[in-house]
């Protein structure tokens, strides 16, 4: 039995997962879970990277004390956010949160200088205000001294790898999300950065997933007698890239929804698809393990998480199980809305924002918590159908089934709604998809598996899957027509 560690960092929580591999199956066990909350300082949203790093170290120590020797470790996280390190290895400021309000104006300025078509044509990345390109531009406008003092820009997993090993690299899958990696050359786009007067000297060497990141060099960790030489590996460090690695399909001709705080609806392709359709539909091409993920960002369960937070502030601390039960009992299709309305991106009173959207579109308002949550689930499922239709227009393929992976796959009601809305079977699992994919890439790097097909077979032997069959097709088709008219009338 070999022990490996997957550090899987989401936008709301982090996990240190122990993976036990016996040569035939792979099992995951949560060693440590911790909250990952934004840190507000002077009305700016930051990530408390030092707290995250300490939690990771505690998780490593917990794993060693409970399970003995650990062969390797890898870190995956959300994309786009970064820290700046000076020439002495000191972090210059806490990384900013991708939901920080400064980014929207920065995107407008960059687009006006470069142009939408040129930005997409060079990078293959959809225009989203949180992309690293706009964050870096916003930082230059806000405090150019930080950029002048910096030596290296490191995305979150690369920054944490640096804190563990002292080595500075940029892993490919996360590097593609910055919107300053050229899709054709697969190298940093120095020309684009130069046009915006952004310093490309900050960018480290790009490495492929499955590359060694170095041996553990943290003094505090090395003092423990139980911890030997622990190899840190660059996995597919974008959490969605890791999640997609774990999809249990023998064919690459499949559609997936990586469901969590965000929902990523897409497929895998051998190389970026950059054309007028992809640009018009605002799809993105992000790097994976020897392929690209052609996908659409949909707001996801962030809407439910923020709704719960609002309820809690009103003295109504509903857990998700109770809300799902109430949603199941509520009347169908009372209202619907575009989950990607820009007003829903920032933290705030999501229920009131949804009510305002209903007023603007002449729909009935949600009258209780159950109808509100049901409307969110129905709108998400219909948006998945909308994105899937666009995906099939881009690729010319028909996807006969959809794999839902990640924490959101546990939501039985949303999974059934997705099957109904898309009129095709939905196969769910694995739940801990990012951690599973993280470990699979480690096993590839260690020579324990030799191909992506062997990875898929290993997942199928290790994870129980559940299939949801569509029904009520006529009702959902009518709802989809109404939903389409609402979101295209904006």
UniProtKB/TrEMBL annotation:
GO terms for molecular function: transferase activity. It is an enzyme of class 2 (transferase). Its EC number is 2.7.1.-. Keywords: ATP-binding, Disulfide bond, Kinase, Nucleotide-binding, Rhamnose metabolism, Transferase. Residues 5-245 form the Carbohydrate kinase FGGY N-terminal domain. Pfam families: FGGY_C, FGGY_N. SUPFAM superfamilies: Actin-like ATPase domain (SSF53067). Signal peptide: none annotated. Coiled coil: none annotated. Residues 255-445 form the Carbohydrate kinase FGGY C-terminal domain. It comes from the Bacteria. This is Rhamnulokinase family protein.
